[in-house]
Amino acid sequence: CGPVGVASAPACTCVATGDAPRSLREHPLKRLLRAGVQCCVCSDDPCYWAQLDDPAHGLVKEFWVCREMMGLDDAELAKLAAASFEHSAASKNVVDENLKRMAFIT
Length: 106
Known about the structure:
mainly alpha, single chain, 7 helices, 55% helix
């Protein structure tokens, strides 16, 4: 068994609280990432959480929320994306190729 990562869907989970901006500012993802914990974002259930007046949902929205509402920078977003490959069931070739593509950001 390899290292464990934390998967989070900040946009989906914080919307349910009724106070998403405050909840996102206090969301632990940023602290965990900056403490060296491998984290990734997921889309939870994008069809359920999509809104008619907001076509962005799923991973696009999760990464947008991490950038715009939680203040993560390019390197932190790249770490989230890299961890999603490192903790996936993808083949070693797929993981290695995608990590190589992201190397210039991290």
